[in-house]
Amino acid sequence: MRFLSPLSLAWLGLLVPLVLLYVLKRRRDEKKVASTMLWEQALEDLRAESPFKRLMPNLLLLLQALAIIFAAVALARPVGVGGVPDGAQIAVVIDTSASMAATHGDGTTRLAQAKRRVRDLIDGLPPGGALMIVSAGGEPVVTRALSRDRDALFSALDALEVEGGGSDLEEAVAVSSERLRDAPSGSRVVVLTDRAADGSIDLAATVPLTLISVVDEGGREPENTAIVSADAHPRATEESPDRTELFLRVARFGATPADVFVTARVEGRGLVASRRVTIAAGETESILMTADLPPDPDGRAAVLTFAIESDATDDLALDDLAVIPSPAARRVPVFLVGDAPSSVRRVFRADRGVELYATSLERLAQREEPLTGLVVYAGEVPSEPPPGPSMVIAPTEDAVFGATLAAAVEQPEIIQWAETDDALRFVSFADVHLRSARPIESSSVTSLAELRSGPVIARQVRSDGETTLVSFDPDQTDWPRRPSFVVFFRNVLESARQRLREGGVAASALGQPLRVPVAEGAEVEVVSPSGRRYTAVSRGGLAVVDVDAVAGVFQVDADGRSLHALRNLLNPEESELRPRLEIAEHGEELVARASGATTPRESWPYFVFALLLLIAIEAFVSTRRA
Amino acid sequence: MTLLDPDFIRRLEQLRLQVRRKLAGAGAGARRSTRRGASVEFADHRAYSPGDDLRRVDWNAYARLGELILRLYVAEEDITVYLLVDTSRSLDVGEPKKIEVAKRMAAALGYLALAGSERVSIVPFSDRVRAPFPPARGRKRVAPMLKYLDALTPDGETNLDKTVETFLARRPRKGLVVVLSDLLDPGGYARPLDRLIAERHEVAVFHILDPSELEPEQGDFVLVDSERGTRVDVSVDARVLAAYRKRLEAFLAGARAWAKKRGAHYSLVQGHDLEAALLEYLRAG
C-alpha cells in the first residue's frame, strides 16, 4: 500500500495527546469507604459474567485511537489495494528481446513468466474491461488490439516469441498510451521487461504506467556463456587454396568462470575445428581456428556452424550457436549484358574475386535457369528485373524496372551522396564531373547520389533482389580516374557476394519471419534447425514464413529451388542477462514491481466507512456506560 | 455535638416518654425475661419430676387429673444490657459518621435501660474488646455512660469473632446483647452471633450503614478500604452499580434471615434515623 498524500499521516501524532488526555481523564478520585468487600464481590460478579468486560475500561481509548488512525490513513489517500476499476483498459507491453528467452532457476523462461502474469491480468479483467497486447521487439507490434475476448487474448499471448533485434520499449509504450488516450479512469499501461539492456530510457506515457520486472528476483545472479561474434576469412596458402581462418568471440557473463568447448562444423563434413578455452567471469575471449573449406558441389559457399558447450551455468541457449557462410572460395559470377562501358569492364576484370561473363539479352532470354551472380545491364534492360543482385548502367530506355528516367541534364553536378550507405563506403563524388545524366524519377528507389534535379545513382530493393541503378555513362565522366570508382564497384560486388553467401534469403533478426523471394502463388517449405516444418504461399512474389526464434540454418525449398536462411543472435547486449536498463517516466525513475495483479486504486472510502463505524460503536459504548 | 449536649439529653428524655406512650403498660424495669422462675405471673405447666420444688405443684390440677403437674411462672428480674459498640475504622465514614450513629444509638438504649432500672454495660470493640463501661444501674450512671461513649474513637479492624470470644470469656451474666455494627467483617458475623445465642444471651442487631453505602454515587473512583487500606479502581456506572446493589441486598437479606431464624432482633439504621429503629425494636418487645 502506498499513499498519495503521505504527509497526512502526521495526524497520527494526535495519538499522543489522546493517550495523555485519556490518562489524565482516567485519574480517579480517591474515596474512603467502610469496606471494599462488597465492591470487590460485585466486580468479581461482573468479570464472571463476561471475561471481556475486563477490557471495557480500555475500549474507549482503543476506539478513539483507531478512529484517529483511520482518519489519518484516509486523509493520506491510500492506494494499492483493490482491483481494476470497471471498464478500465490495460495495454500490456511485453519485452520480446532475446534475453527474455533466458531461463530462471525453475526452468521457465522470462517470457513464460511474463506470459503467466499477463494471464493473471486477463483473468482479472473487470466487467467491461479490455486488454491489448503489444510485443516490444525491435519494432513494436500490436499483436492483439483492445479486446474482451479472453480466448483471443490468450491465443495472441501464446503466439509471442522472442526476437533478436532488441526491444524498443519507448516506442511500444508510446503506441500503447496513444491507444489508451481516451480510455476510462483506471486504465494503464503495464510493461513487462527484464531490463536486460544497456543505457536508460524515458517512457512518456499519457496514462498510468506500471513496470513489472520478470527477472528471477529471489534467485541467483543470471549467468550466460555466449558467442558474441563469428566470422571467417579465406587465407589461401600454397598447400591449401581453401584454407580459412575462423574467428570467434565468446563472452562469459555472470560471476563465475567457464570452461568452454568450441566447435566449428560444416554441413555434410562434420567437425572442422575445435578448441577448449577457459573464460573468466565478465571477460570475452577471442578464438582463432583454421580449417580447409572448399565450396560445396553446388558451387555455393558452405555454412559454418559454431557451437559452445560448457558445464557452467548457462541461462540462455540462443547464443550458444552461430551460423555464418564460409567465405566463398569460388569467384562471384558477374554477367555483363550488353555493351558495357569500358571502364566498367575494366574494373570487373581487374577484380580477382570475379568470374566475368559477357552475354546479351537475347541469350539470357533463352536460358531457363535463373542466373546466380551479379547481372550488370548496360544500355538495354529487360522488362522484368532478374532475381538476386543486379546493376543497370546508362540505360537507354526511359523506364527501368518500374523507375522512370527524365531527360538528360548537361554538365550536371552531384551535390550530395549517401556516405553511410554500404555501397558508398569510402566513395566521394567531390570533383567528379559528368557530361550528362538522366535524373531518376521514382519514389520506389533509394537515392545514393543526386543532382539538384534528382538522383543519378539509386537502389531499388525488391523482395527477391535488388538493383543498383547508375543513370549515366561512366565513360562520359572523369569518375573512372578517381579511386572511388573502383571502390564503388567493389562495394556493389561485396554486397552481391554477401547475398549469395547467405543463401538467397535476406538477413533478418532472430525471430523475424523469413521472407523468401519466389514466384507468385508458389509454395515454400521451410525446415527449422529443430526439424520443424513450415509452409507458406507466395503473395506478391514473396513468401513470408513465421519460424521459431532459434539460431541456426533454416532449409528453404522455394518452388524447387533449394535455399537456406541463417539466423543468429550475436548480440552481446542481449546475451548479458543482468537487469541494467534504467527506466524513467517523465524524468522520474520508475521502480519495477514484482507483480502486476493489483492496480493502484484509492481506498480511502473504506477507511472513512470504518471510521464512521468506529464512531457509532463508541457512541453506543458510551451510552451503555452512562 | 457531644453526647453530653443538653439537646441530646433532652431528646433522650423525649424518646423515653415517647416509648412509654407507645408501649403503654410496659413499665420500665419490668422487662420480661426469657427465663421462667418464681414470680406471680403464670407462664405454663409441666410434668413433675423428682427434685422439683413441691411448693410449685398445682394441687388443683392434681385433684382433677390425678397427675403431679408443676406451675411455672415468668421470672421477672433486672437484666443486664450489654451494648457491643463497633468502634472499628469502618465506622469512621459516612455523613454523619457511622461511629456517631452507633454512639447515639448506644446512648439511647443505655439511657432507656438505666431509666428502667436495668443494668447497662458498654463493650466497645474492633479487632479486640476495648475497656468496657462496667455494668451499672440507675439514672445516676447516665452521665458517666454518656461521657464514656463520647470518648470512644474509631480504631482497628472489625473482628466480631474475636470480640465475642473475649466477651464470653469474661463469663458475663446472661442478658441482652445489643450489637451496634456495620457487620462489614470479612470473617462474617453469623458464627460469633450464633455463639452469643448459644450462651443463652438475647441478641439484638442494629445494622448501621450510611446512606452513601446504600446508594453510592456514580463516577470513577479509587475506593480505599478504611480498615485494610485495600484500593479498588472502579468506574461506577449503571452496570457496576447494579452489581453492587445486588451484593448489598444479598448482604442485608442474609442478616435479616439470620436474625429471623435465630429469633433475634434486627434493625437497619441509616444516618439520623435513630428513633424509628428504637421504636421498632421496643415495639417488637
Structural features:
heterodimer; A: 626 residues; Rossmann fold; Immunoglobulin-like; 5 domains; 8-stranded mixed beta sheet; elongated; B: 285 residues; alpha/beta; 6-stranded mixed beta sheet; two-stranded antiparallel sheet; 9 helices; 39% helix; globular
Write a structural description.
The complex is a heterodimer of chains A (626) and B (285). Helix content of chain A is 22%, strand content 33%. With 626 residues, chain A is an alpha+beta fold. Chain A has five domains: 2-81 and 605-625, no CATH class; 89-218 and 581-599, 3-Layer(aba) Sandwich (Rossmann fold), CATH 3.40.50.410; 224-328, Immunoglobulin-like; 332-501, Class I glutamine amidotransferase (GATase) domain (Rossmann fold), CATH 3.40.50.880; 514-567, no CATH class. The longest helix of chain A is centred in the C-terminal third of the chain and has 22 residues, at 604-625. Chain B has two domains: 6-25 and 79-284, von Willebrand factor, type A domain (Rossmann fold, 3-Layer(aba) Sandwich); 32-76, no CATH class. Helices cover 39% and strands 27% of the residues of chain B. Chain B contains nine helices and ten strands. In chain B, strands 5-4-3-6-7-10 form a six-stranded mixed β-sheet, with helices on both faces. Chain B is globular and about 80 Å long. At the A-B interface, β2 and α2 of A face β8, β9 and α8 of B. β2 of chain A pairs parallel with β8 (219-225) of chain B.
The assigned CATH architecture of the largest domain in chain A is 3-Layer(aba) Sandwich
Count of runs of 4 or more consecutive helical residues of chain A: 11
User: For the largest interface in this structure, which chains are involved and how many residues does each contribute?
Assistant: A-B, 23 and 36 residues
- Gyration radius of chain A, to the nearest Å? 36 Å
* CATH homologous superfamily assignment of the largest domain in chain B: von Willebrand factor, type A domain
Q: Supply the number of structural domains of chain A.
A: 5
What percent of the residues of chain A sit in helical stretches (DSSP H or I)? 10-25%
Give the total of beta strands of chain A. 37
| Class from helix and strand fractions of chain A | alpha+beta
Which secondary-structure class do the elements of chain B indicate? Answer: alpha/beta
Tell me the Rg of chain B in angstroms.
22 Å
Overall tally of structural domains of chain B: 2
The general outline of chain A is elongated
